[in-house]
Amino acid sequence: MIKVDLERCDLCGTCVAVCPPDCIELREHILYIVEELCTECGACVLVCPMQALQNLPAGEK
Amino acid sequence: MQSEYDIVVVGGGPAGSVAARFASQMNVSVALFEKDGEIGIPVRCAEATSDMDLARLIEVKREWIANYITKARLFAPSGDFVEIHLPSRGIILHRRLFDSGLAEEAAKQGVAVFTKAFVSHVEFNSDLPVVTVNYCGESRQVRAKIVIAADGVESRVGRWAGIRTQTALKDIESCAQSLLGNIEVQLESIDFYFSSRWAPGGYAWVFPKGERVANVGLGVNCAKPLAKPPVALLNDFIEYQFPQGARLSTVAGGVPVAQALKQLVADNLLIVGDAARQANPVTGGGILAAVTAGKIAGQVAGEAIRCGNYQRNFLKKYQQEWIRTVGKDYARFYLLKEWMTSLTDQDLNDIANSLKKLSLEEINLLTVFRVALVNHPRLLFHALKLFASYS
To answer: ipTM for the complex?
Structure first.
């Protein structure tokens, strides 16, 4: 499951640009991942300049 | 906010504000929605462009310009550098003032500008597009005849119209930048550092904004996993290069170094700027492309409203004009970028070494490329292979 650390996230939207299923929504103060659409491909994790995204095994928070 | 406009522009960066202004000049009703609370903030940009080129498109106000640039220095991993005189004068903008100035200009031309207006969806399947905008916490539906998507690298509007805008990892640079104070800078020079140590598959930059202050940042290619994220690489670079520097700001951002979208228009839709992946793929500079595309798109959209034809076949005038004025060149630059990202640190050192023998007057970007290929047959072979594969 992809988790966003909002303390690291700069809300730059680079992850949105590469997300294949288009499951990330960037608003003024929050980045939101629509879990039902996410395929956990990890593209957002690779591209994040701030290392704010992590692919965690199911069950971990 | 009205429930209906002729044109809705999504995004208040340079592409959006310029598109909105030129559309509004054709006497049509235009609204511009910016998701953030203030236009021009945050500045996710190294802020370099050319005022002469910009001035061909719009009036450039003196107060938008932080500094004038006459040369570039390209640093190889070895520390050797090559100095290049810029073919046309460069400037470092105050993007904050530039962006808000462009939005003000749009407002003066009658554009209804809204901030804190987040567009959460556009429905393209109905007769006319329906824009859902969350404005100051309240959701509203606004009908438009044409939507101009200027919603930046994080663009989603095109996807809602069925256009695939997702960018491959190799075609985006993941960037971090700080405004550094109290550092030594060469005011008239923009500096580029090519090295896998600082910026694998990209470069680090120092763009002076004034005496002892500069945008210092880097962009890296993420097609291969990185040992460190850009923000940590930037810390390393600053620690090494400017240990006494004061971090006046820090921002992250993504820069498309891609081929522009193949489809820039659809029925009732035009896509401009970073949203259309229109930045220069070699430098990552997107300001000039955004203003160019915004101006053409705004004019074409305004004309479309007056003719009553919002279909793709009419709007594609924008795409054709973009390709003719900028797109054609940038398609070539994309090949150059593909070649540049294939160079190793050793290649870069060798090229810098060969260029040292030339006088300053002889050096421009083309001679850099030519000298690299003539003196290093392996690179020539690689370039030929690459260019052949695209032709």
So the answer is: 0.95
